[in-house]
Design brief:
The chain is mostly helical. 63% of the residues lie in helices and 0% in strands.
Length: 71
């Protein structure tokens, strides 16, 4: 999966190529998890709201140090 995405969209900037599968796996897992919760809750949120939720989560991940402190 990660290799196919890399071939289609190119390398992930500022990431070691050998770590790309982990990077993609984390984001894929977040997306699948959000979609599962959305389905379990009866699809109450709009697609735009789902995008906002995903963006918020990915931004949170990108602003946290491994110890949980903000960057």
């Amino acid at each position: 999966c990660a290799l196919r995405l890399r071939k289609r969209y190119g390398a992930i900037p500022h990431r070691a190529p050998e770590n790309s599968p982990y990077f993609i796996s984390i984001r894929t897992s977040i997306t699948i998890g959000v979609l599962m919760v959305w389905l379990e809750r009866g699809k109450k949120e709009s697609p735009k709201e789902l995008v906002d939720i995903l963006v918020e989560q990915l931004q949170f991940l990108s602003t946290q140090k491994p110890n949980g402190e903000s960057i």
